[in-house]
Amino acid sequence: MKSYTALSRSAQRSVYYFRCSSGPRRPSLRQHATYGLQNAYSCAEEKKVTFKELGIDKDLYQKTSGIRFRQHVNPLKKELQEPTKPLDWRAVYDDPTKPLVLDIGCGYGRFLLGLSKVDATRNGLGLEIRDPIIHRANEWAKHLDLDRRVYFVRSNATVSVATMLETYPGPIELVTIQFPDPHFKKRHRKRRIVQESLVTSVCEILAPSGCLLLQSDVLGVAIDMRKKFESGHGGTLRLSDLHDDDANVFFEEPSMSDDDDDEDSEWKKRGWLKENPLPVPTERECLVSEQGGQVYRVYLTRNQE
Predict the structure, then answer these.
(1) 119, 145, 181, 264: which is the annotated catalytic residue?
(2) Which end of the chain has fewer CB within 10 Å, C or N?
(3) What is the pLDDT of residues 221-232, one digit of tens each?
């Protein structure tokens, strides 16, 4: 394997963005296996996306780094088709009757940890398909004394949300699906996390007046998520009032794309949110902002029963 300095400038840039990013766009280079995540700490510091206020200092970062894992996992594998069983909620949370924030595809977990720092009134549950980073996220939660309010579980959310959350004692007030793996190839789109089964499950578990945030920096993925929830929610969801103010939204749709087949969409007519309505961004969101990219957001509310 070539050393970092022996790589071309463009390849070096790809490795740099790989280390900084927690989002779905990953280069195929595998230099991270050599340099390890400890180097990602200093690199991410430069881009200010490590959420320093969490208290994950360099020593802790290096102590819990060095893990190796596949960036892309096939959720259709047989072992991932078994729904995750309900947790013993009293063993997980100090107060399982608190409202819950569910982060589907939580990645490295910093979003939930950061949100719990600024909002102690709710519990947090992160679902992620890659097992090694789940272990590390729980280690971080323990170090930050958040382990009785935030918990991370390996789970294929597409088949597990309804089964897993049906016994949660408190209301599920917020669900987030942020920057999911885009699975660009058309034949792989059945691997995307937002499928009909997940739409149905989220609509079932979300409390009345609860909120759902969908966002991606890949326009086709954002359109696909919006389309699936609009067609499958069965009257349970509506766009947040934030979409009513023209100052809050923008309009961008592909001119020629097989993703753009929702001409009759009412949600499409009300645009994408310019700003994240939540107080904490994800690392991917920070990186996209740093690079001058665009994020496509839809914020939904569950109707009162």
Answers:
(1) 181
(2) C
(3) 999 999 999 999
